[in-house]
């Protein structure tokens, strides 16, 4: 191999212009990409660029996608270790390349050792500023929003990182359609009140105020995952909540027993198969409460609760929750929007929405957001 | 990272069931993937698989795609060195995964040092046989058939490996539609008689009999690239020739001077912009001769000359060449098929066909092949 | 013209097998097609078929579509008079043709003289039975459900029958997708509580119990339009209500003064542009009441309130109405389903949904109905 | 019905601005629409328009489509007689409507009595000039170009006018895409040398010089069908010839015996199923000769021979014919273009191309014409 003698190494914290996507502590030494869709972005004028990554995990390895001028050129597993990944080489040194290196895998609360960091770059050119986009979107969701099943054959059943994709799901597509910067907070299986299996600890609202509080373990603590998020630094124009699918599933799943207390949790069905009113009300209360929390942290944002890609059973309850919140608060910048259900054609791996389903969702959601954000 | 203690390393040559795609010398120690679309395929029953690759180059680095159960899960640049790449991990050890590791980059005749090899595997399971498919296709072409421009934004202009894709072009799609095994011989810029820039040495026909004769240099020689190909071992049901685009371009390009002899080569235009009859006839003679050569090596195959994805100027000459060959030989298993031209919507990077254009071409070509192969 | 000497004339009431679609009084002497989508259907084994129609109107002329074996072959204006229309001729006399003659225009409450009747047939063959389909659907709606704007260039602005289509709208498409018989009750501009211009008389619920009570005038009275509908004779599996769009529009339209009483009606906006709570509540009460009425007449049907093809402002109120109805009644067979909004691409004439918008609506609605009707 | 007292009747020949499409004798008293796609076009500023038509036939009745502002609003059979058809009514009298009344049925050489004429108009407004479009196209073809099978279910087998459509086939679509005026000469079953059943009289070239020479009988003679066409009055920019499909079929059809002379005609197959060389050569000679005739009448037009919607067997012969013509004449404005074959999805009635197939053909053909007409 011919060596490129012009490459110069620099810690990420020394790079003049680096744009970070996703919630972080602000640290660039190194930069930890906690959530799916988190990314580092450059406008790179030069011929060859490398980044030094560090990956670790017990079980679930992180994956990244690389986009050059908004086109996905590479997607790869990052096995454990600290090493250099070549982003591009052999390009015209005079042309400015927009580059994104995006975390494809959701924050892995099940594997506290799962970690993806970026330490440094090797480059033979100059980094130019990356302007912020005029619009900012924040997505909060579950496996759908984590892009679970976007990658992989329909027959796949393993729950592994390979089937997750940030860049191939509706969040990235919606942001691209609206030319928006965006962030994602998502946990596969989690809900508003409980997870799909009735675990009340696995709810997104409890962790909304933190950088990435869903991650436990000492290292994540040390990395600042449980710090308070700096909301002033990044205020979204719209917060899109795509939750409820797992809360609905909990009604059809076995009870969950808290190993610490022995307490048993279960969202119950009536004998006729309908939702138990009291338990459904608990979900609605949780949803209503979450809306208040979102408003507290995001005083100006439109809040849009979206739902429907894997069926509609919780929609009436979601409307009731939003209605109750609106009636009590007088807050008018909250709405509900139904997303298209998957079909035989659009389903992906693990019975989750495939790429086509995400494209369909992004098309209608971006049209809806366009309307409410510009009226 | 938790180590998987069950992984066992084996040289590729020791693996019980390995299927190789693309022309090779037959060697598995190591396996050299010369042409684009060349691949190693496994039916792997186990939870974790790694392959040991070796990549080298002066200028143009190889890329690979990994497909699990026919779904593309990863695409990555292989920088220089010998190292292990993880194919999958954490999967159900009882399920059989069909795995393909595919060379995404064409044989790089401009960089004799460009080389991609597979040495060994690490696996915790059992390899099962990979049956041959009932149908075999061979594609011969230029940049279109190399998938140049399938990857990358429309504005891209650099001629670099990143924009090439074997798995995203019409050859893979056509083979998939027909459930066929396939091989590709392609060189960007080359033609039947000359390359786009009038170089008469850059023609595919001269190298058809060899494993990968387009590659020069001592190492490729040592690896067997210039050996006679073993045609008996793999006889295609159809040979698809997608050449002529660069021969057409030569009429509009500057002359080429042979540095060794000083001889000047040029396909000439008449003053009125039409093709010089003598030079066009030279192309037709070369095409006709190539048909004879293809028939000699492939006594039973349907030969289909396809053309048109980047315009139609050579189509009458191609028809004349096929007509002349058929008239003289009585060979009835030769035909011509027009492929759809690119449009503003379907164009990819470097003004070449994008993925949509390849999908359109594959749709009509596979329907046509279906018809002639089953009648 | 060669006369077909075998044609025999018969009053419709004498025809052995005739299937009537849409609400009627049961009379076939003649048959009056009141509502859009109303139709007469034959399975006709013969070579040539004519029907004798009678059309009248002061302003708005009726249109029909003719479908042969489910394919639309003709669409034509019916000018005033009583005359024969040829349905088909010159066909194989041994083949059975399924034939539908469908009213394309909604019941025209603005033109009491508008009338479409079928008196008789001329035929040279035999009519075979037309079996009922396994599924029955009833649609209740406004201009969207009347297919206003399905026909015509986007620039069209006249409110005329030519732009209406029963066969090109989502009702026919949904029924076709589900292989269902269907009926439609729809009035352009009408709502649940009031019309788009605040007229409280123009509401569909008041007329639901009658054959076609929206039509006034002596002739319609004589034809039985205001008779009680025979609900026992035809019970739908699902009732799809697509109302609310005009109720929403009323908030943004001038007040309406009852010419008889001088009373003024207006759905009011608050100063901040939001809906007046009291007036919105009146809509919700009307919607809730309508659900009760629908259930009374259709004890077993799934009731689906659909909404969204021209925006979503009333959706929270619709959910509240359904919720309130469900809470009080315990009725579980009522749901809400959001239809896709029009886009620049899918809009038709008069700023109404075009054919593409209706296709999109039918695709998601039929998938949804499929799910709830088969679970 | 309220009478529109403002309607004034005028013979078509007295109308200030009327644009006629398709070959005619120039007579407007009445106007005879001979070929499919022939039409009368108005820019009508008024509220209500009627046309007086006269239809006759022994067997095959004519059909028309009505387009308002380029949108098809009506399609109807015209049974025998002379009567008034309402084109529109109740429209804004101040708006100008572009109106086309188009013959949907090909010239019916099998039924010399088949005739469609337009005598007069009733209108309450003013006709404005209809400008010629910048581009003119002429299409020559067989059943494909007659739009046979565009209308009707796939199962239909009768050969009747109902299944033919001018406005729903690739000729109208291509003209619309290129904003061109266009004419069509087409006969179902006919070819360049013979018809599908080896009748050498049923060839289009023999009649190209006449207005509509394919029509026999005294009345058509009297109407001027066999007059020399006035080529100076309308010179196309491109002549698109879509012939060869029936010439190919003749090889697989029984011989035809001339009832007058007893002479037997048959395009023969060799024992191995290939085309007899002599007979194929006769086709090529006929095609070559036709090109000369087309050039004689159209000195400046691009001539494009298109083929392939129902298979490709004659393509090599077509290329040879064009090649031979070009070689001898030096004429460079002649080319060949392959159209997409039908698929299971795109096939229409009577195993002919359906609307989707015509849309696909129009898309690629209009792109090709765009290229050659603007380069």
TrEMBL record, chains A, B, C, D:
Coiled coil: none annotated. Residues 139-320 form the SGNH hydrolase-type esterase domain. Pfam families: Lipase_GDSL_2 (PF13472). This is Cellulase/esterase CelE.
């Amino acid at each position: 191999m011919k060596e490129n003698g012009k490459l110069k190494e620099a810690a990420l914290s020394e790079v003049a212009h680096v744009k970070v996507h996703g919630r972080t502590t602000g640290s660039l030494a190194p930069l930890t990409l906690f959530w799916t869709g988190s990314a580092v972005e450059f406008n790179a004028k030069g011929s060859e660029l490398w980044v030094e990554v560090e990956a670790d995990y017990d079980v679930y390895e992180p994956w990244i996608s690389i986009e050059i001028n908004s086109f996905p050129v590479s997607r790869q597993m990052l096995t454990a270790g600290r090493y250099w990944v070549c982003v591009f080489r052999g390009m015209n040194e005079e042309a400015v390349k927009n580059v994104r290196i995006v975390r494809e895998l959701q924050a892995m609360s099940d594997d506290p050792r799962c970690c993806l960091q970026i330490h440094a770059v090797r480059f033979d050119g100059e980094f130019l500023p990356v302007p912020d986009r005029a619009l900012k979107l924040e997505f909060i969701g579950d496996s759908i929003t984590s892009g679970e099943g976007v990658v992989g054959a329909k027959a796949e059943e393993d729950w592994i990182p390979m089937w997750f994709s940030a860049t191939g799901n509706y969040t990235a597509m919606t942001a691209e359609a609206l030319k928006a910067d965006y962030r994602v907070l998502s946990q596969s299986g989690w809900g508003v009140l409980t997870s799909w299996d009735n675990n009340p600890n696995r709810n997104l609202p409890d962790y909304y105020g933190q950088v990435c509080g869903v991650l436990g373990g000492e290292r994540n603590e040390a990395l600042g995952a449980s710090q308070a998020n700096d909301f002033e630094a990044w205020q979204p124009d719209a917060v899109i909540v795509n939750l409820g699918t797992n809360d609905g599933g909990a009604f059809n799943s076995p009870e969950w027993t808290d190993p610490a207390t022995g307490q048993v949790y279960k969202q119950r069905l009536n004998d006729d198969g309908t939702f138990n009113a009291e338990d459904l009300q608990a979900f609605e209360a949780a949803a209503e409460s979450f809306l208040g929390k979102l408003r507290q942290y995001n005083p100006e944002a439109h809040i849009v609760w979206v739902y429907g890609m894997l069926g509609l059973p919780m929609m009436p309850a979601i409307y009731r929750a939003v209605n109750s919140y609106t009636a009590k608060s007088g807050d008018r910048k909250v709405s509900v929007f139904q997303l298209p259900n998957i079909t035989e054609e659009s389903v992906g791996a693990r019975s989750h929405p495939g790429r086509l389903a995400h494209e369909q969702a992004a098309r209608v959601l971006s049209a809806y957001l366009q309307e409410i954000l510009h009226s």
